[in-house]
Write a structure and sequence with these properties.
Blueprint (H helix, E strand, L loop, with lengths): L4 H37 L2 H21 L4 H19 L1
């Protein structure tokens, strides 16, 4: 267990940040599933909305430090390709 005041503060900070990151990661997973469902369905309007929402969520998580920037870039590339192929 932490003994110093600064160590106790670090424990509190870590707990808060972990919870915030968990929320963001859960939102990413949910919107990714929605994007996958829209791609499977094939409706161009739904695909556009779902993919845009998913990519926006990944960018927000990167800004908050919950996920790595390369993850967001990789997903943008993959889902932009999938959306283009589905609308073509």
């Amino acid at each position: 267990m932490a003994n110093s005041q600064s160590a106790l503060k670090r424990v509190r900070q870590t707990k808060t940040r972990t919870e915030q990151s968990r929320v963001l990661k859960t939102r990413i997973k949910t919107t990714r599933k929605a994007a996958d469902a829209a791609l499977a369905e094939g409706d161009a309007a739904k695909i556009s909305d779902a993919v845009t929402t998913f990519l926006s969520m990944t960018d927000r998580a990167v800004k908050r430090g919950a996920v790595h920037a390369n993850y967001s870039s990789r997903m943008k590339s993959r889902y932009a390709s999938k959306a283009a192929a589905a609308s073509a």
